[in-house]
Amino acid sequence: MGNTKLHWKYKSPDSQGYHTVVAPDNSDLKTTWGFRLNLNAGHQYQITDENLELNGVVISGQATIGFNGNEHLLSVRDSFYMPSQTAVTIVAESNLVLFLGGAPCEGNCQFFVRKYDLSLPLGNIHQIHGKPPYQREVFMTISQEDEGSRLICGVTEGEPGQWTSWPPHQHSNDLEEIYCYFDIPRPNFALHLSSRIPGEIEEIYPVSTGDFVIVPEGYHPTVGMPGIKSCYFWIMAAFTEKSRRYDLAVNDPHFEG
Question: Which of 53, 176, 187, 242 has the most crowded Cβ, counting Cβ within 10 A?
Answer without folding.
Answer: 53
